[in-house]
Design goal:
Distance between the termini: 61 Å
Number of strands: 26
Strand content: 15-25%
Shape: globular
Number of helices: 15
Largest sheet: 8 strands, mixed
C-alpha cells in the first residue's frame, strides 16, 4: 500500500456541507468531473505575480504589455514528465478522459464515482439541492488523499469536496408598477412601458451613469458566467430586446442551449441570473460581442481553464457567484484560484466579481465576526458592490445598499494599489464596527459599485413575464459593460486592453460617482455601528462609488 498524503490540510469536508444540499445516497457508477491542479514551484508563482503587477500598473514601464497563452505556459506550466506521470496514474485509476489544459497547469478529469473513491481514498455521495432538486452534485463528504508519488506533483483536486451555495438574484417584485410610491419619478420612459416607472431599465442606467449610446461596432468583447444549471431561453431574450429597443445576441460556450427556461416559476427563480446578466451586459455594451460561459457545476478553476484554453478569450468577464472565505474548501483552493486570476490578468483580461448580497454578514449570517466573501476579497479581481437611489424612482444621488457585500478579508493582506485609499477611510470614517468583528489589515472590498438594491429593482424578462430583481448580480454585469465600453475606446485608438482594472481604478477614484450615505449592515435597517459606512472617497460599503462614463472616458 503506497504512502498516502492528505490533501488540502486543515479541510474538514463535513463542516463544509451546506444545509441547502441534501445527501441522496452513495454515488458509484455516475461520472464525476474534476480539476487536478498541478503544483507550481515558488519561483513560478513569484514570476507570474511579478509579471501580473508589471503589466497591470499604469505607472510601470511594462503596463499593457500583456502575455499570450504560450508565454503564460512558459512561466507556470508543469514539466511534461510530471504531467505524463499524473495522467498515466489517473488512467490507471479508471479515468474516462484526461484533458491537459493549454497552459499545462491543470488536468480536467472525468471518472466514475467508484473509481474516484479508490483513487482519492475517500467516500463519494450524491447531493440534491433543496430548492432545485434537478440540480445534483457528486462530492466527497470526507477528506481525500493521494499517493506520495502523485501528491508531489499535485496541489489539489478541484470539485471533489466543495458544495457551493446556489446563487440566485433577489426577486424584489413580480409586477412592474406605474405608481411610484414616492409619487414622482424621473425615470425615462422605456421598454414599451413593460417595466413601469419603478424598475431600473437600460435607459435608466444610461441616464444615471451618463453612458451615451451603446457601441455600434466593436474590437473588444465581454462575457458572463453561469454555473449549476443556471440557463436562459432565447424567447425571453427576444422579448426583452423587442420591448426595450435593444438587439441582444449571445454566443454560448460550455453547453448551455438557451432553451431551458420558458416555464414561469423556473424561469424567474433559476434562470433569472443568466437572463439578468445577458439582458443588461448585452444592452449596455451594444455591438460588443457577448459570450455566455456555462458550467453545469460551480467551478472557478474549470471556468478559468475554459477561458485560458480559448484562442481569443473575451476581454471583460462578469461573474456573479461566490461564497464566504470560511466556506471555501481550503486556503489552497483560494490560492490556486488567485493564480488563475493572475494568469487572466497577465493576458490582459479583466475579471469582475459581485461582492455578495448579505452585507457584512455573508452567507454564514450573524456571528462573532463578519464573513468576507471570496472571490470578492481576492486582491487579483475587481469586486462590485451595490447601491440604491436615495429617493425611490429619482435618478440622482445613491446610497449604499444595506445588503451589498463589503468589508475586509481574513485571508489576504491589503494590496499596495489600495493602501492609501483604505487607510484614508480608516482614519476618517466615524461609527466603524467594533474592531473585534473585522480584520483591519486585510484586502478591502468592494472596489466600486452600481445600482443593485431593492428600492428600484432591475426589470428583466424571465419565465415569460417581466419582473423586478435585485442584487450585486445586477451591479456586476453593468459595471463590466461600462469597462467593455472603455476598452472599446482604448482599442479603437490602437491601445491595449485595460486588463486587471484595480490599479487603474484606484489611480482614478475621483472619476466615479462618490456615494456618501448608507451602510452595508446586512439588514434592511442598520444600527449606527453595524456594517461599514459610505463616506467621501473610498469606503468598504461602495468602494469608489458608481461609474460616471463621461469622466471615465476622458481618461482613456
Amino acid at each position: 500500500m503506497p504512502a498516502l498524503v492528505v490533501m488540502e490540510q486543515g479541510n474538514s469536508a463535513d463542516v463544509k456541507l451546506s444545509s441547502n444540499w441534501l445527501k441522496a445516497g452513495r454515488c458509484s457508477t455516475q461520472q464525476m468531473h474534476l480539476m487536478v491542479i498541478m503544483k507550481k514551484r515558488s519561483a513560478q508563482r513569484a514570476k507570474l505575480e511579478e509579471t501580473f503587477w508589471a503589466v497591470s500598473d499604469p505607472d510601470h514601464p511594462d503596463y499593457g504589455k500583456h502575455l499570450n497563452s504560450s508565454q503564460i505556459t512558459e512561466i507556470i506550466g508543469a514539466d511534461s514528465a510530471a504531467i505524463l506521470h499524473v495522467v498515466q496514474w489517473l488512467r490507471k485509476q479508471g479515468a474516462i478522459s484526461t484533458d491537459v489544459a493549454a497552459q499545462r497547469d491543470a488536468i480536467e478529469v472525468s471518472m466514475l464515482c467508484q473509481d474516484a473513491e479508490r483513487a482519492f481514498a475517500t467516500t463519494v455521495s450524491t447531493f440534491v439541492h433543496a430548492r432545485a432538486n434537478e440540480l445534483t452534485l457528486h462530492r466527497a463528504a470526507a477528506p481525500y488523499s493521494l499517493p506520495h508519488e502523485i501528491a508531489q506533483y499535485v496541489s489539489m483536486v478541484g470539485d471533489l469536496i466543495s458544495l457551493p451555495e446556489l446563487r440566485l438574484p433577489l426577486i424584489a417584485n413580480m409586477t412592474p408598477s406605474t405608481n411610484n410610491k414616492e409619487g414622482v419619478s424621473n425615470f425615462p420612459a422605456s421598454c414599451n412601458d413593460k417595466c413601469g416607472d419603478t424598475f431600473v431599465t437600460p435607459a435608466v442606467l444610461t441616464k444615471a451613469y451618463k453612458l451615451g449610446a451603446a457601441p455600434a461596432s466593436a474590437k473588444g468583447s465581454i462575457a458572463v458566467a453561469e454555473f449549476q444549471g443556471v440557463q436562459y431561453d432565447r424567447f425571453d431574450i427576444a422579448s426583452f430586446s423587442s420591448a426595450c429597443g435593444v438587439d441582444l445576441k449571445v454566443k454560448n460556450v460550455g453547453g448551455a442551449s438557451g432553451l431551458e427556461c420558458a416555464i414561469p416559476l423556473l424561469g424567474t427563480e433559476l434562470c433569472g441570473e443568466a437572463l439578468l446578466d445577458i439582458e443588461y451586459a448585452g444592452s449596455l455594451s451594444g455591438a460588443i460581442p457577448l459570450t455566455d460561459i456555462f458550467n453545469s457545476q460551480y467551478s472557478l478553476l474549470k471556468w478559468a481553464t475554459q477561458i485560458s484554453n480559448m484562442a481569443s478569450p473575451p476581454l471583460i468577464h462578469s461573474v456573479s457567484y461566490g461564497n464566504d472565505e470560511a466556506q471555501q474548501t481550503s486556503e489552497e483552493y483560494m490560492l490556486e484560484a488567485n493564480i488563475a486570476f493572475m494568469k487572466l490578468g497577465a493576458m490582459g483580461i479583466s475579471v469582475l466579481f459581485a461582492s455578495g448580497d448579505q452585507g457584512v454578514l455573508g452567507r454564514e449570517g450573524i456571528g462573532a465576526k463578519y464573513h468576507p466573501d471570496f472571490p470578492a476579497s481576492s486582491p487579483y479581481i475587481t469586486a462590485v458592490g451595490g447601491t440604491d437611489f436615495v429617493a425611490a424612482g429619482m435618478i440622482g444621488k445613491e446610497k449604499a445598499w444595506s445588503l451589498g457585500g463589503g468589508g475586509f478579508s481574513n485571508t489576504f493582506v491589503r494590496p499596495a494599489y489600495q493602501k492609501a485609499a483604505v487607510e484614508a477611510f480608516l482614519s476618517k470614517a466615524s461609527e466603524l464596527p467594533p474592531k473585534e468583528k473585522w480584520n483591519s489589515t486585510g484586502r478591502a472590498y468592494p472596489d466600486l459599485s452600481a445600482l443593485g438594491g431593492q428600492v428600484n429593482p432591475y426589470c428583466i424578462r424571465a419565465g415569460s413575464l417581466f419582473a423586478g430583481v435585485a442584487g450585486t448580480s445586477a451591479s456586476c454585469p453593468v459595471v463590466a459593460a461600462v469597462f467593455a465600453k472603455l476598452n472599446e475606446l482604448r482599442l479603437s485608438k490602437g491601445g491595449k486592453p485595460l486588463g486587471f482594472l484595480n490599479p487603474w481604478i484606484y489611480k482614478h477614484g475621483s472619476a466615479f460617482n462618490d456615494v456618501t450615505q448608507g451602510r452595508n449592515c446586512g439588514s434592511p435597517f442598520c444600527l449606527p455601528t453595524a456594517g461599514f459606512p459610505a463616506v467621501k472617497g473610498w469606503d468598504a460599503a461602495t468602494g469608489f462609488g458608481s461609474p460616471n462614463f463621461e469622466k471615465l472616458s476622458a481618461l482613456i
